[in-house]
Amino acid sequence: MSSFGYHGIKRVATSEAARAERAARERSKIEAYRQLCQQTVDLRRDGVLDADSLAVTTALLNQNPEFYTVWNFRREILQRLFADMDVDAVQASCEKEIKLTESLLRVAPKSYWVWNHRRWTLETMPRPSWERELKLIGAMLEMDARNFHVWDYRRYVAKSMGNGDPKAEFDFTTHKINQNFSNFSAWHYRSQMLPKAFADASSQQDVVLQDFELVRNAIYTEPADQSAWLYQRWLLGQEPSLLRSCSVYVVASHPATDDALSSSASAAVVVTFPHGAKLRRGGQIVVTVDGRMVAATPATTMFGRLHAFLLDGAVARGSQIVVEMAAGLFGGNKLDVASVGITTRGTVGDSVTRLEVACDAPANASAASELPLGGVQGDDIWAVELASLKELVEIEPDSKCKYEIA
């Protein structure tokens, strides 16, 4: 037997007297806790808001940090005490609260009530140190990188700092994800920071492409973990397929006919997208019929897959119509991808006529007016991801991805 171990030592049964003594100690602790709880209830009922009451709540919270009613009472006491303090005294008192919550977070790092009280303290103290909070967050994430309470608190701190540096926050998620791909909170925070860290559409598209590579590495490393899969789905929803194409139609109304539209003697231009798109407030399309400009009034909601514009008057069969839409007239609801400038034209038929694309702003845009994504078209992104997943199925036949691509 090792001199430092206990292997080979016969266990000695606890005597009845020892068990009774331990039970007595436990009963004593429980009774003391009950008395402390009752004392706190009595103090709050009687409205005793002084330093002694504060000390009682401190003793109770050190035993039970989850007692949210006591936290509420503590804040009532502090607000009363602060009323008679100068700024420096309030600051000093709040610093004590910060130390109290920090010590309790060591034993209860996922306590909603402790984090809530720390937020209240920072919002109450005259000179909060947000840089200190970032250090605390960093230390706690080193202990548990997936503690969603800490990630939520980091978002709060960043917002309190005026959203801080979105690029630095984005880079922070890169660091944490590279440490552990199975970190859903880091992936989620990354999805929030990406649009803020990269303001223009071009840089967003470049980062999205880079993140496809990052998420592929994560999936290949840990194919059974759902975090990377969820982020991949988010990425596929963010690439500009939202506004990569649209269709433009003219709904004719001929005064000489007896159809249902003739009563209004009005025609309409309809623009459709594969997903929801938002018409810029005050946005207008430019419609020309046989060389004459015709007023077009929006007739549908600002956001949707279909946008209709009523024309001022009827449009005769056989008329030549041109519809121009400026770049950015429509916007997306994902990465704020804007529509490209596009001109469509055609000959008005009997009822509904689809107009052909005449020209659009990007030199490399296709006839479907697709918006390029870092040099790769939207459909190609899906093809690349599908090929990657099929390859993973061959390597990991039992991976869940085979169900994803089915």
From TrEMBL:
Enzyme Commission identifier(s): 2.5.1.60
Catalytic activity: geranylgeranyl diphosphate + L-cysteinyl-[protein] = S-geranylgeranyl-L-cysteinyl-[protein] + diphosphate
TM segment ranges: none
Domain of life (superkingdom): Eukaryota
Family: Belongs to the protein prenyltransferase subunit alpha family.
One Pfam family in the UniProt entry: PPTA
Keyword vocabulary terms for this entry: Prenyltransferase, Repeat, Transferase
Gene3D superfamilies the UniProt entry points to: Protein prenylyltransferase (1.25.40.120)
Species annotation: Polyrhizophydium stewartii
Designated name of the protein: Geranylgeranyl transferase type-2 subunit alpha
Function in brief: Catalyzes the transfer of a geranyl-geranyl moiety from geranyl-geranyl pyrophosphate to cysteines occuring in specific C-terminal amino acid sequences.
Principal EC category: transferase
InterPro entries: Prenyl_trans_a
Entry annotated with the keyword Membrane: no
